[in-house]
Model the fold of this input.
Amino acid sequence: MAAVSTLFFLSPLLSDDGWDHSAAFSLKKDSWQKIEIHEGERIHDLKFLWTLYRSGALVMHVNYENRTFQPILYTKYGLNTFKIGLFAKAADASERQTERPYALIVFRAFDEKRQRAYLDLKIKDYGMSEIFYTEGSK
Done:
């Protein structure tokens, strides 16, 4: 059976709390979430999935630009977030931009009955990119 991918655009107008882009996801085990970050002509790929949930810990696999990470997240504040540095800040960046663009993957909850993890993706890019995501398997 062929996997169907759907492409969505995340508008900065839909963001909250000062984030340039944000989205919420509900993922089943071993289901990749893929995001394309368009920085001008460059396209950066970010994808993540979870493989294990045990004793309140969510084991994830994250891949950004062929760099792999395996964070373990909990729903407790301070342990629920994984930060990924994205690309270099613009040479003409304003003084307000003190750091390079970044993304946060935030673990909000886990539904034991449905075996689904609820995650947020929040991106601070200072207006330097457009974000697209596709859902489906790798």
User: Anything to note?
Assistant: Residues 8-135 form one domain. The radius of gyration is 15 Å. Residues 1-16 have pLDDT under 50 and may be disordered. The chain has one domain: 8-135.
